């Protein structure tokens, strides 16, 4: 998403907050947004690109509301879909926590 692109329409009660760059050494750092549902920060979305491709991807990480631990989610080219996935993981984290088959 370039600076001129508008953010998608957000679900009710959800807002995005663009975070400052983690390092000032990177000349053009990709955007990172905190995802908020009401007063709770429920996840992060990082924008990234494959150097040889034109598509922009969004890496989503939800926060487990019970433990506060991150729940990594897959990347996707649809920002709204990633926001919806973070909200779903916040509401039902068990669906998104990967467990090994021997547990």
Considering the chains and any ligands shown, give keywords for the structure.
single chain, 103 residues, mainly beta, five-stranded antiparallel sheet, 1 helix, 5 strands, globular
Write a brief caption for the model.
13% of the residues lie in helices and 35% in strands.
Task: Please characterize this protein's 3D structure.
The protein is mostly beta strands and 103 residues long. The chain has one helix at residues 79-91; strands spanning 14-18, 32-37, 40-49, 56-63, 70-76. A hairpin with a 6-residue loop joins strand 3 and strand 4. It is globular. The model has no long low-confidence stretch (mean pLDDT 88).
Going by helix content, strand content and strand pairing, the class is mainly beta
Largest sheet: 5 strands, antiparallel
Q: Spans with pLDDT under 50 lasting ≥5 residues?
A: none
Shape: globular
Order of helices and strands: EEEEEH
Question: How many β-strand stretches?
Answer: 5
Portion of residues within helices: 10-25%
Q: What fraction of residues sit in β-strands?
A: 25-35%
Mean pLDDT: 88
Spatial order of the strands forming the largest sheet: 1-2-3-4-5
Q: What is the straight-line distance between the termini?
A: 40 Å
Number of helices: 1
């Amino acid at each position: 998403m370039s600076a001129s692109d508008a953010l998608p329409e957000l679900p009710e009660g959800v807002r995005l907050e663009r975070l400052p760059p983690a390092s000032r050494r990177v000349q053009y750092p990709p955007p990172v947004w905190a995802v908020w549902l009401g007063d709770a920060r429920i996840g992060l979305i990082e924008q990234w690109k494959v150097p040889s491709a034109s598509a922009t991807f969004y890496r989503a990480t939800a926060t487990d509301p019970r433990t506060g631990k991150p729940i990594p989610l897959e990347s996707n080219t649809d920002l709204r879909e990633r926001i919806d996935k973070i909200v779903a993981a916040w509401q039902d984290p068990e669906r998104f926590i990967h467990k090994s088959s021997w547990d």
